[in-house]
Amino acid sequence: MNNIIAILKQLRNSRNLSQSVIAEQIGIGRSTYTKLENDPSGFTLSQLIKLAEIYNIDLALLLGIKTEHKYYDFYTQIKKLIDEVT
Predict the structure, then answer these.
(1) How many helices (H) and strands (E) in the chain?
(2) 25 Cβ contact partners less than 8 Å away, ≥ 6 residues apart
(3) What is the pLDDT of residues 55-66, one digit of tens each?
(4) What SS3 state is found at 56?
(5) Alpha-carbon span 79 to 35, nearest angstrom
(6) Domain housing 53
(7) Residue 81 burial by CB count (10 A; 0-12/13-18/19+): exposed, middle or buried?
(8) What CATH number has the domain bearing residue 42?
(9) Could you read off the pLDDT of 33-46 as tens digits, one per residue?
(10) Whole-angstrom Cα distance, residue 17 to residue 23?
(11) Helix pair angle (30-38, 19-26), 10° resolution
(12) Domain count, the chain
């Protein structure tokens, strides 16, 4: 669990984002996000997926399950191409 806490804080801080900004993007209040960032067991799956999208990383990376960033880059590139076309 400590790895997830460290990962969440590192991702947010490395992008100079506040807890308020992230909370708004996943549809919760800042105080709720603060609690969840310190005890991520309360995040819903949809919130974790949204966090992975916000940080542009694989969900497995966010959860600390894997350490390599291989496949998500391909997905992101395809999504960007589709967005450009539409």
Answers:
(1) 6, 0
(2) 50, 54
(3) 988 888 888 886
(4) coil
(5) 32
(6) 2-85
(7) exposed
(8) 1.10.260.40
(9) 999 999 999 999 99
(10) 10
(11) 100
(12) 1
